[in-house]
Amino acid sequence: MKVGVLALQGAFARHLKVLGGLGAATTEVRAADDLSEVDALVLPGGESTTMSMLLDSSGLHDAVADRITNGMPVLGTCAGMILLARHVADGRPDQRSFAAIDIDVRRNGYGRQVDSFEADLDVTGLEDPFHGVFIRAPVVEWVGDGVEVLATVDGRPVLCRQGAVVVASFHPEMSGDGRIHGRFLDRAFAA
Amino acid sequence: MSDVTRSTGTQLVKRGLAEMLKGGVIMDVVDPAQAKIAEDAGAVAVMALERVPSDIRRDGGVARMSDPEMIEGIKEVVTIPVMAKARIGHFAEAQILQALGVDYVDESEVLTPADEAHHIDKWAFDVPFVCGATNLGEALRRISEGACMIRSKGEAGTGNIVEAVRHLRSILGDIRRITQADQAELFDWAKRLQSPLPLVQEIAEIGQLPVPMFCAGGIATPADASLVMQLGAQAVFVGSGIFKSDDPAPRARAIVEAATNFQDPTMLAKISRGLGNAMPGLEIDQLETRLADRGW
User: What span, in angstroms and rounded, lies between the C-alpha atoms of B67 and B64?
Assistant: First the structure.
């Protein structure tokens, strides 16, 4: 069982470190060939417009979309959440998302960098609070019926799951706490 | 009414944004039209300034923080982070930039320094700072003042990569040497680098700077981006190199692709084709002003 981390741009090294610390076999995904050897994929934080463009130019977009359709487990954080959302507000017109989870997000919905924040979150299924790091984070403005909301900030979802897709507005790779990655791996490889 | 306690302006969120920019290209832009071209080409952020370094070099005079109206104009047209430059030591310019809501402040040697002894106390700000460095001691002094990202200075506005390479090799070479040093030698390293001992000890332990390290000053081609990233830079700033070239949009796009595919020469060969002329370069020993000498 191997977990890929999309390594086109952004904080992919942090995810590799957390996953490696949990004992997972990992690999960087930069091309469609890399994707064929992974069983699950993490879409990291970074600049979603840049990643969207590089997904197209690398030929990865269609390959990833195809794997998601076929049930590959994916975890998307911040920009990764934007890439997986059904609808993106305040994005670029040519920005493509995978529409893998039934949520609508607004880019930079929590504001600019001076509004970026840390906060302790109560997460469904975790005993102790999880320290969330929100950086120019996207706001979830709507969730569909099939989406399970696992954590909120001021009533807005910040951690959601639908089937094999998990998305976070914040950066679980930045807080030195592997529990969200751990749960993702447990569910992804439970079958 | 908030149901969680939010902490803003922390080191984690300030360094965190730099983490998000890794593997990307930050482009100098002087107006909203250029900012749009940069975003369209896949820039992870833009640096708003009145003149690109090669024009500052040509025109001379005192170079200052940009007009807030121009910075706001750029903020309006792009969705990616917007950075702006303050003069070294000019904390009032930095306060204004923070009030404008820029996402990163560059305390930059490209502008004319405002203080000959003191850099800005960057701990006093919620907005994160990036600072230039030519060697490890300079980098650690900036980090001790609160910088959340270091960029090797290079020599801005020259289109000549040689200084960027010198600075990167100096910083990264010393980091490698420090990881081999024993405890007693670390005291001597701190003395020689004129840097706080705890930061030197941290580097010995983690084998890298405690903040992201990017590269600036002289990048003009996709191959330049690949070179500095293979040497160890985690992202690149491109100043005059894009908008002083023959055909900015394709060159900007190519450098973005190069930052992702920096280890793949076959891809780089494809990316580098047909970009037209790069910016005209300058020989370092014929420069009147060495911008990299500014900062202490």
Answer: 9
Tell me the pTM: 0.96
Cβ neighbours around B77 below 10 Å, total: 16
Model pLDDT, residue B4: 86
| pLDDT higher than threshold 70 for residue B206 | yes
- Give the model's pLDDT for residue A191: 59
B191 classed as catalytic? no
Q: Which of B7, B20, B261 sits opposite A47 (nearest CB)?
A: B20
A184 with A73: CB under 8 angstroms? yes
Taking each helix axis as running N to C, give the angle between helix B162-180 and helix B197-206, from 0 to 180 degrees, rounded to the nearest 10: 90
Cα(B237)–Cα(B259) distance, rounded to whole angstroms? 11
Cβ proximity of B151 and B132 under 8 Å:
yes
Domains of chain A, residue spans: 2-188
Q: Which of B14, B75, B85, B244 is catalytic?
A: B85
> Who's near A111: CB < 8 A, 6+ residues apart?
A136
Asked if residue B13 lies in contact with residue B149, where contact means CB atoms within 8 angstroms, the answer is no
| A2-188 has CATH 3.40.50.880 classification | yes
CB contact (8 A) between residue A10 and residue B7? no
Structure tokens at B266: 């076959």
